[in-house]
Amino acid sequence: SDIAMYHSKTIGKNTFSFYRKDIETEKKEINIRKLETKFESIFNNIPIGILLLNKNKKIEFLNNRATEILSLEKDDIIQKDIFEIFDLKDLENKIDEFFEKKLNSFYYEIEYLKSEKEKIYLRINFYNFTDEDLKIDYYLTTIEDITREKLLNHDLRRERELLSNILNNIEAIVTIEDLNGDLLYINKKGLEILECSENEAIGKNWVDFFTPENYKEKMRNFYKDLKEGKIEEFRIHINSIKTKYLGIVFFFNVW
User: Fold this and answer.
1) What whole-number distance in Å separates Cα of residue 129 and Cα of residue 136?
2) What is the spatial distance between Cα 81 and Cα 40, in angstroms, rounded to a whole number?
3) Which of 6, 46, 181, 192 can bridge 206 by disulfide, Cβ–Cβ 3.0-4.6 Å?
4) Would you list the DSSP string of 40-100?
5) 3-state SS track over 184-200
């Protein structure tokens, strides 16, 4: 600033203005570098993998999480075609449509061989990446390791199938109802006794559709007490239901 002041006195005000603009430009560049550093830190520490693809479907940039998920070094991925990294043969036509701008985004789940002994499941998302003029120069791809989610869903599905088989082989009615008495589940034997299909039964109110008139008030009071927490945890209750052809059938409820 002293030099600028000296020149402004000896050469003229335009020189001072030049030095002042130069200092302001330098400050802006410093702020931009700080923002770039901050963005790079966020980009590399985000918990999902990110790949930046060019128009030729080659990977130009990726974050640290992507290398961790894929168990590859950045040098082994940069400038590689996406089909060289992932087995996407079944998606070739869809990916072509995406790069031809016929699709804005889509996702797919694949198996990925992380090593000879480890197979994982990935969810890959494809997004268009536009600049200020809304021109698509790059394509953003995110990858997530969903192995745990897949395995949990698989175990849950097996447990549901096992429970369903057990309940459907019980020679008694088994139902699940909400606090209003609306039917949420009924086993195979229950449908046989009620003489109706699952679609006809689910969602129906037990009192309104399956309880004889002379028992309805008693059952409504029961559900009222249940809502208010007045019912004991285990209780045997004689109930009755009406069916299409058998009339009234008496049975025991265990609550």
Assistant:
1) 6
2) 24
3) 181
4) HHHHHHSSSEEEEE-TTSBEEEE-HHHHHHHT--GGGTTT-BHHHHS--GGGHHHHHHHHT
5) EEECHHHHHHHCCCHHH
Residue 231 · residue 225 · CB < 8 Å: yes
SS3 248: strand
Q: How crowded is residue 222: how many other Cβ atoms within 10 Å of its Cβ? A: 20
Closest CA to 110 of 81, 70, 68, 73: 70
* Entry pTM: 0.54
For residue range 235-255, list pLDDT tens digits in order: 545 566 666 555 555 555 545
Residue keyed to tokens 């974050």? 63
Length of the chain equals 255
How does pLDDT run across 154-211, given as a tens digit for each residue? 888 898 888 888 888 888 888 888 878 888 888 888 888 888 899 999 999 888 888 8
The whole-angstrom separation of Cα 220 and Cα 205 is 11
Give the whole-angstrom CA distance, residue 97 versus residue 238. 64
Helix, strand, or coil here: 209?
A: helix
Joined together, the tokens standing for residue 91 give 């998606």
Buried b (16+ CB within 10 A) or exposed e, 5-28: eebbeeeeeebbeeeeeeeeeeee
Q: Over the chain, what is the mean pLDDT?
A: 77
More confident residue, 134 or 36: 36
User: What tens digit of pLDDT does each residue of 212-232 get?
Assistant: 888 788 888 877 887 787 766
Kindly report the number of other CB atoms within 10 A of residue 158's CB atom: 10
